[in-house]
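Handoff note, outgoing to incoming analyst
You'll be picking up this chain. Sequence as last confirmed:
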Amino acid sequence: MIVIIGDSPNYIAAIQERKACVFIKMKIFLLPIITIVGLCGLLRAEDSGKHLFILSGQSNMARFKPALWFTPGITEALGAGNVIVSFHAQGGQPISKWYKEWKSGKGETDPAAGKIYDAMMEATKAKMDGKKIRTITFVWMQGEADSKAKNSDVYLAGLNGLKKQLEKDLKRTDINFIIGRLSDSGFYRRRDKKRVENPHWEEIRKAQQAFADASQQAVWIDTDDLNGEKNALHLIKPEGYSKLGERYVEAARKLVKENIK
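Most recent structure output, in case you need it:
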């Protein structure tokens, strides 16, 4: 028998050999566990589903470019591969082009009610096809046309109706809503920028706030500082839309995090 004592070369070599053997055995033992844990993590990420964002509205949404001002930020916040963005907007259109059961205060209807909504949903469902959806957030920027048509008295009913319509078609009652509130543009006369009274514009702004304030899954975004010194109808491009995008992303991130299941 050989006895190895102290700091002799044989002693050190034996210790190093023993450590190497222990490390190899531990690696062999842990490798399957690490593999299983890793696969479980991937499965959980896949099973949890994706976050769907639907952006729609009239001119200030139509001029907005999600690929520049929304998708990169929300992807960074929620993770690459976890986000689906659907975008469909058209300038100059009233809420009746989305809400199919819209009626004016006098009981009038729109023969083309829901036309834009149908196109929006067709594009959205194509992007959803075959994917598990974890959360849905609807981003809305609209209202100028309804103010011009003096239909502010039914605007809140239109928003609530649109909400129920989305819930029915998407089979969800947990949809998040982000409302880009009308800017202060309507309070300034175009020819000389003099401030004027505009009760319909004001009522639609109030309706948008009331809609958002009524739910923990809805927020409204202030845009009064994004349309420049002349208080233009459209936001300043690109700075105004870029800042709006940042606000959309922050609001969306918070809504998703706070209401995720």
